[in-house]
Structure formats: structure tokens, C-alpha cells
Amino acid sequence: MAHQRNNEVIRLERESVIPILKPRLILTLANLIKHGSDRAEFLKLCKRIEYTIRAWYHLQFEDMMQLYALFDPVYGASKLEQQKLSNEEIDQLEQNFLKFLFQVMEKSNFKIATDEEIDVALSGQYLLNLPITVDESKLDKKLLRKYFERHPRDNLPDFSDKYVIFRRGIGIDRTIDFFIMEKVDMLIARFWAYLLRKTRLEKIFLKRFKRHHKNAQKNNDDTDTEDYQEDAYERIRLENMPLSFGNLLNKTKIQEPTFERIIVIYRQASSKSKIDRGIFVKHFRSIPMADLELVLPEKKNPGLTPMDWVKFIVSAVLGLVTVISTLETSTTDWKVIGVVLSTLIGYCAKTYFTFQQNLVVYQNLITKSMYDKQLDSGKATLLHLCDDVIQQEVKEVIISFFILMEQGKASRECLDNWCEELIREEFGETCNFDVDDAIQKLEKLGIVTQDVIGRYICVGLKRANEIIGTTTEELVLKAKQGTINPNSNSNS
Fold first, then answer.
1. Which residues contact 362 (CB under 8 A, 6 or more apart)?
2. Distant-in-sequence, close-in-space partners of 10: CB < 8 Å, separation ≥ 6
């Protein structure tokens, strides 16, 4: 992930998610097959592939759901008590559940957000203009730390011992409004930035930002520019808006890339009297990167922004200096002192009420994220993930088999490129096709082989259906229709 200064562009690694609905994918590929008999065999094969893959994952998903029932924040405690387990046994079950969960997240193409991604996302502001932090004292630090000690990973964020943020998919959010108070704050911020430059204090206050920007710019320079336009997401912020009466008085459009799916995993800290075993799994959608604080667990009530404190302190110092200098003169002008004090109080009051207005906006955003942005939590999130894994696996297998069926033979690299080209040309979508996973599934199904030089070859459609065989789901459907053949066999 990289952040570019000139045109405020955020670049992200292309993901392996196939963003096409399965029915549309199957129907489109089937229509590309010329002969009707082959088309019918292909449609039958697609169903058998899905039924078989679903059967493969059924036991794994069932084990994960049974484990989560013990750690559900609402009902898990009572179920754990019924099990009469020791603390060591419960600890092991916790780790088993996390292992299943992280495997499902990986299969569903979710990625753990890194420190760099978080820093770049939060380097700007969008709708949320208050500093939000996590109350770490309310979060457990043992559960996730123990998991990552047993299953080390690279590029883990600093907060990974307290909570984990998974992200998948990128979108764009746009808002058009007058942004009156935000524009006033922007003008004040630019004025203070000008003063900091003139007083040479900029290096002290902006040291952290410059260090971050240098690292981000380095990563941006190291990134291959071939797919720049495909992976670039523009950020339009008020901070970079050209100064003009038109821009200040008219409606303005701001734009921010979004994380289309975010899943946050954490556990609340236990009290002295009772150990809390509940594991929270929360699922959000379309969260603007700059407002990522909305999904953080156990947020503290926001305080004044650094800019508010600067305005308070500088205003107070200037006011006191003016009052003291006036009192030191031989002819004290109490009217001048009154004007200075009233101006100072009024300015501080204006800063305070601006903060209160931002606080109301923050509360509204939190409410909106809970009702509009939060898709589900707990068991519902796990069920969604399980189905998502199956859908992605099925689509990968179908696309790769179709390419081999049309091309005849292909190396691993060619198969990868052809699958991505098919998705781009037929559906207008781009993704980083996971060819390794697709080949593994095709070989497990027994419908793909390799020749002596390592190229992959698929069997014919009819033979592929014979190899997979009649599935349990097909037998159930035939039984419902009263057409079941007693001699039929099920392979799944």
C-alpha cells in the first residue's frame, strides 16, 4: 500500500477475490460453449463441483461453529459451565477456534491490515474530524498474543495482541455538502501551518508525518507502475482544496477510498471477579479509510483535537500578554482590557462549541455505522464467511476448468493469465486469480492431470461428470421428484 503526495492517490495490491456472482459466471461461460450437449454437461459439472466442495468444507465449518458456541459473548458462558472444562482445556479450545477462523478468513481472501495500511488510511480526514483512540485497558491482551506466538505472521500491526482488523475489497465513497465548519477549520489549519513554517517549528510538529510520508513514498516508488491505473484510488480532501471564494461558498465534493468489508476480532478484558471468554467477531461494510476509527473496539470518548488545543493555548497566551502589557502602562485602559478578555472568552467558547458540534457528528457517525455499516456479528458473520469461502472456491475451479477445456493444455503461468484475461474481457472485472488454489482443487477432484513437461490437461466434460459421480444433493432432488435410481452411487 502506498500514498502519493501530489495527486492524493492510494494504491493497493490487487486482491484474489472474484467479484462476479456465481449464477452470472456459470450462465455466461455456458453460453460461450457452442454445442448444446456440451453446454448441458458443463452445467451439470458446475453443480457437481459446488456440491462436492460444499461437502468438503461441511465438517470443518461445523467444528468451527460448535467451538464458537462456547465463546459466543451472549450465550457462551453458560455453555462453558455445562462442559465442566479446566482452564487449560478451555485455552486449547480457544486456540482451535481461532485457527479455524483465521483459515476461513484466508480462504475468503481477507487480509490482516498492517501498520502501514492503517497509517496511510488515517493520514487524512474524511467525515470524522475528532481524534479517536482505543481504551486498551478494556481489551484482553492474552488471547491473540498467544495465537500469534503459536502461528507467527509477518507484518502484524502493533495492536495485534489486542484486536485484529481484517479487510477485503476497495470501493469509493463520495459526499457533497457545504462543509462550512470544516472549511473554517481548514483555513485555520493552513494559517497555523504557515506560522509553523515561518517560525521553523514545522520540523518538530510534523516529524512523524514526514517520516511516514517518506516511507510511503519509498514503497510507492518501488511498486511496479504497469497496473497503476487499475490499482489507484483517488482521495479528494478539503485540506488540498484550492483557495477561492467559489470553493469556500459553494458545495464541495470530497471522496475517500473505502474498505468494502472489514471484520474486527477482539475480546474484552476480564474483571477481577470473573474471566471473560467471549470472542467478538464484528462485520462492517463500506468504511472510509480515513474514518477507520469507527470500527475500533472499546473507543474512548473523543477529546479536543490538537488544533483546538493550539488555538486555546495561543489565544490564552496572547490574551494574557495583552492584559499584562496594558496593566504595566501608566494609564490603564480598562475598556481595552475588557475588549481583549471578551474576545478571548468568545474565541475559546467558539472553539468549544465547534468541538461539541464535531462530537455530535461523531455520535451520528457511530450510530450510522452500527445500523447501516455493520452487516452482522458473531455467528451470522461466521456463516457468511463459510458460504463466501465455498462460493470463491467454486468460481475458481469452474473458471480454470473452462479455460483448460477451451485451450487444451496450459502451464500454471498461462492458466493464471488466461483466467484473469477471461474475467476482464467477459465481465469487465480485474482480480489476482489464485491459480495455485484452483489447480489444487481440480487435482483433488481428479478432473485435471499433468503431462511430462508440467502442463495441465483437463478430461472431457462427460468424463469429468463420471469421475465426480452423482452427488448426495442430486439423489435428494431425484427422490423429491420420484425419479431416483436405486443403483445410483454418491461420491460426496
1. 128, 130, 132, 302
2. 1, 2, 3, 4, 120, 121, 232, 233, 234, 235, 257, 289
Locate 282 and state its grid cell.
464484528
Angle formed at CA 108 by CA 455 and CA 441, multiple of 5 degrees = 30
pLDDT tens, position by position, 129-187: 777 889 999 999 999 999 999 999 998 999 999 999 999 988 899 999 988 877 887 88
Question: Cβ contacts of residue 49 below 8 Å, gap of 6+?
Answer: 394, 397, 398, 401, 445, 468
25-42: b (≥16 Cβ within 10 Å) or e = bbeebeeebeeeeebebb
Over residues 104-122, the mean pLDDT reads 88
pLDDT digits (tens, 9 = 90+) for 295-324: 999 988 776 665 666 666 766 676 667 666
> H/E element holding 64?
helix 36-71
What's the rounded Cα separation, in Å, for the pair 483 and 219? 62
Percentage of the chain lying above the pLDDT 90 cut: 52
State whether residue 397 is helix, strand or coil.
helix
Rounded Cα–Cα distance for residues 327 and 340 (Å): 12
Whole-number Å distance between alpha carbons of 173 and 237: 12
- Model confidence at 4: pLDDT above 50: no
Rg (CA), the chain: 29
Give the type of residue at 487.
N
Angle 398-400-405 from CA coordinates, rounded to 5°: 90
What CA–CA distance (Å, rounded) separates 233 from 170? Answer: 9
Average pLDDT, the chain: 84
Whole-number Å distance between alpha carbons of 130 and 162 = 22
Q: Is 201 helix (H, G, I), strand (E, B) or coil?
A: coil
Q: Where are the beta strands (DSSP E) in 202-279?
A: 232-234, 252-266
- How far apart CA 479 and CA 176 sit, in angstroms, is 57
Contacts of 318-327 with CB under 8 Å at 24 or more apart are: 318/344, 319/343, 319/344
